[in-house]
């Protein structure tokens, strides 16, 4: 049984989510170009006792090597990929995701990940616990406000994503195996000097020609289309007119101002709090440290001795490849909570400016220095009274608000509607206009949207209708009750509703088809030897837009920040004396690109541009090597696809079945 038989596809899907949550470099830089960091599935988790041995049965979409890939894995991974795409375009839905071909990219990446994982294990590659610990220490999301690894923060982050320490470690282990496999092949790719000189000389190249636009508007029909013709066009192009999903959200908010009880603490309560917390008001000591964590006790003691011998802690950490963090002043208990009891005891036993005796933490051994020691004198009841008053008042407010939110939550749990809850607790209900997932009003981009909706908008687009929920707004001193009163699914509207819009699109399409015929006639004439300008004049259309072009490649590259027009890109990829046809976007017409002359420039063998070119091409070479190696591994391991199962998943995700 393979290592993936030890867990479930669901776990891998959740790990894909936590990678986005952590926003850290858990995998190789070579995988940055991937559409998504695809979760590896454990195919054996879906075995139900069948005798399935290939891809023709069950719900398997493929067999990669000797591992079966379940259809559920493709679906869950596609959902993760969609979530990433939505970070750039919140309005995109799964039907659009599938329609744009992104599901095919997800499928390819899924098969690649399976193949690479199998191949690495077949070679006997291993990643030990200490290596995984080092990766965990580098994740910023696991550090506290002082920049130190914090076990409580670590556990909270895992719980927030529904993960365990074991699951995260498994994913990091996979990433390390991939590093071991790919790094030797991609460590230092070098473009040959001859090739670099050739590419560098292209920068000096200059091209002269002309670009003509044959606009579809010149040939668009002016009359109305026949009813059947327009209906047929609309049916074939419905995706162009698809409206994104919209939701109407109702909500009511409440906070401390909703609690009307008298919360002012009495003198007796203040005195009782002082007595029960005398230790907090007694003289105490706080300390600030600078530290880093290493995997073994031997390494920690060796580094401490070197630092005591005169090397700075920061220099020692840098030489050993670890990151230093500094904490604010903390008392003994706070330091123990942030690290552990053993380290706190050692830290409070050391002298100011001295090194702490190495103590073991969850992920290794601490190497730490005492930066500052603060002595805090004791305070009397009178001196502490104001602080205690504010503490008790804050606690009472929080308790009253928690009690109120709990009562409201109980009502919601019992099935009480949002309107009924709002009436019972005298809350005002607000209803939004139909909203898009990006937080704008459908059809009114500049319209105001209640700011209270922002924090819950993502969740609202995952809820069912009329199922109210309770959530905190920012801090826990204000809450929102909200539900979705109406879901308007993503779909193309009835033709009658957008007839004018469809008619305009039909005219553009018809004009575009005729413009293409004209452009092809001009193209054929140039290929027969007719001059480009003469071929255009033969069409007897004085309104053609013709633009002479004389441009160097260096000038073209300088436009990258503003976006290079596609006809110019084509001009610099053509052979001298040729003419090419290029479709303009959105049915606006067709470009004819004519290249008359190419002037090449010579470059000296010692020109620094050559070295710069080799450096600039290194990432491109690394990516090409990665693709070739991945393809070779995939071919070696073998992928047997179940096209019927893949198509079934595609239809389900697209909402066709």
Brief account:
The protein is an alpha+beta fold and 657 residues long. The protein contains 24 helices and 15 strands.
What's the count of strands?
15
Helix content: 40-55%
Can you tell me the overall shape?
A: extended
Structural class: alpha+beta
Largest sheet: 4 strands, antiparallel
Question: Which sequence of strands runs across the widest sheet?
Answer: 12-3-14-13
Count of alpha/pi helices: 24
Into which percentage range does the β-strand content fall? 15-25%
The average pLDDT value, as a whole number, equals: 83
Radius of gyration: 33 Å
What is the CA-CA span between the terminal residues?
35 Å
Please mark out the parts with pLDDT under 50 across 5 or more consecutive residues, or reply none: 1-57
Short key terms for the protein model shown above:
657 residues; extended; 4-stranded antiparallel β-sheet; single chain; 15 strands
Protein described:
This protein has a four-stranded antiparallel sheet. Strand 10 and strand 11 form a beta hairpin. The chain is of the alpha+beta class and 657 residues long. The longest helix has 33 residues. The chain is 45% helix and 15% strand. It has 24 helices and 15 strands. The N terminus is likely disordered. It is extended, with a radius of gyration of 33 Å. The two termini are 35 Å apart.
Topology:
Elements: H1 9-22, E1 60-64, E2 67-70, H2 71-85, H3 94-99, H4 102-122, H5 129-137, H6 151-160, H7 165-186, H8 193-202, E3 206-215, H9 227-236, E4 246-255, H10 267-276, H11 278-281, E5 284-294, H12 297-308, H13 313-320, E6 325-326, H14 332-338, H15 341-347, E7 359-360, E8 365-376, H16 381-413, H17 418-424, E9 430-431, H18 457-460, E10 469-472, E11 478-488, H19 499-527, H20 532-537, E12 545-552, H21 553-557, H22 566-571, E13 579-583, E14 589-599, H23 608-637, E15 639-641, H24 643-653
Antiparallel strand pairs: 1-2, 1-15, 3-12, 3-14, 4-9, 4-11, 5-6, 5-8, 7-8, 10-11, 13-14
Helix pairs in contact: 1-2, 2-4, 2-24, 4-7, 4-23, 5-7, 8-23, 10-16, 14-15
